[in-house]
Amino acid sequence: MHRMKSATAVRSTKLPSGEEVPVLGLGTWHLAEGRRGRQDEIKALRLGLDLGMNLIDTAEMYADGEAEELVGEAIAGRRESVFLVTKVLPHHATRRGTIAACEHSLKRLKTDWIDLYLLHWREKIPLGETVEGFQELIDSERIRYWGVSNFDVSDMAELFEIEGGASVTTDQVLYNITRRGIEFDLMPWCRERNMPIMAYSPIEQGRLVLHPVIRHIAEQHQATPAQVALAWVLRQDGVIAIPQSGTLEHVRENRAALDLQLTRRDLDMIDRAFPPPSSKQPLAVL
Ligand SMILES: NC(=O)c1ccc[n+]([C@@H]2O[C@H](COP(=O)([O-])OP(=O)(O)OC[C@H]3O[C@@H](n4cnc5c(N)ncnc54)[C@H](OP(=O)(O)O)[C@@H]3O)[C@@H](O)[C@H]2O)c1
To answer: Phi and psi for 3 in degrees, rounded to 5?
Structure first.
């Protein structure tokens, strides 16, 4: 019997502005790619919202804009209750390109505003141009906050040197039991600045559920391996996890992971199987 029902509300964490956002949201990469029925995926997102996972992460890149369209349909009639995150592709991220990409995303999402707009990753366009674009979007109330993704500490430090760069709200990065490099430097760096990180691929795209140590811990708690993976990511403050699922059962399971309290023994077992970093590691990306 696996944990499926949750008695507690979804916890929240604070953005640098002080606004609270849920620590568990819904990813959308690989949705709208025809893997399942479109309506099934919309139902899965809506179920997540019903269960209090009121943060949706998408991107103009996902399914070439079709993931945003699907999200637009899923949030129709309930936009106010959703904290909506989407991303601009790096080759669009000039000042004008950022604004144009945002307008396209707004149309696909069928909304007037994006809560958090991220630079998906960094390429050649100078960061200052992207920040100017973000600032204009804030001034015209098309976005409420901006942030970055796949930025290592050196990128973040550079961003802070740019005019307006310190207004960054989050760094969305790969973080899960098998990808712990950021614990050495990026996590403490963000924590010192009261900036949450968003952990993407928190169950390593589903691969973590096969690991014997994770399976063993799950059995001890009558939980599932995915729940162990999520509970581990969410054990610390200042982390927002955005697992993706188009399956109703998995969405329920992921939501209930918030009720799973890993013990010191579990954490030690995980540390032995997946040691924390003892030196700087280059930022892992997917
Ligand atoms: N910023 C970036 O560069 C970046 C990169 C990667 C991802 N992301 C964001 O982060 C989100 C999450 O990452 P991800 O999609 O790469 O990986 P993930 O959330 O770690 O894993 C998703 C996979 O795990 C499966 N899954 C979900 N819940 C499960 C459960 N309870 N039990 C067993 N399998 C389960 C899903 O299949 P089912 O659909 O069948 O449940 C899907 O195949 C993305 O969707 C995207 O929004 C951002």
So the answer is: -65, 125
